[in-house]
What does this fold into?
Amino acid sequence: MQLKPDCLVCLFNQAQRVTKVLECDETCAKDVLDTAALEIAKFDFTLTPPEAAAILYPKISKLLHKEDLYKEAKTESIQKAKKLLPFAKEQIRKSSDPLDAALRAAVVGNVIDFATQYGFDLEEEIKKIFHIPFAIDDKRAFSQRLCKASSLLVIGDNTAEHLFDKIMIEVFKEHCSHLDIYYFVRGKPIINDVTMDEALEAGLDKVCTVVDSGVDTPGFCLERASNEAKAIFDNVDLILSKGMGNFECLDGVKDPRLFFLFKIKCDVVAKRVGKQVGDLVCIQGDTI
It folds into this structure.
């Protein structure tokens, strides 16, 4: 999915959000916003939004002398998410369809995003996630393929969301014990996306094979991936792509193995999939 005019505004607002989260003084904030404005003015509409972000954020990091801009905010998000994990596990345990419930648990964490047009409260979202309908619902098609697959790739998205992904993977392993599961993380810190450090801290390597995808974008850009990640992507039986950033990078990949799972958090993506901001979607890749 290529940049739209609204994306440029969103990127500038993201730069402003960084200054607020890091409590920059007025001089520092102006420097960040001036830098953002100059960079954004150079973008053309052949880039995807994550590719544009991968140009902008390192400039801000260099200016502020801080590689992981949201390090402290990510830690806070993890602590908040941990408090909700018992509730998610209990809802899955009580469900008549644990695979569906596991997918729902995984998508609730997708609201933990520091780079979107609209924000949502995790505690409020988890109260309703296990019973509200999906606007596009290919979860059953995914589950049917899951039971027949021998290998699954989960493309991770945000920090703290990865804790719910771990629960989902544990359920997949319980019901499909033959599965080899791979979990992709970003190659370096970018916004609040999950990296190897957060994945290992959460013990994801105990339930699946965690792979540094090599990408520096807040979305899985296949062209930027490591050779190992490309080989896994090409050869697994099934792929679950989490979050809007991954969708923005992989939109247009017409592959029946590929399923997108996310909450719509901006007008541009809402228009692309023909649904509303706030809707939940699970979309098979060759149907959009």
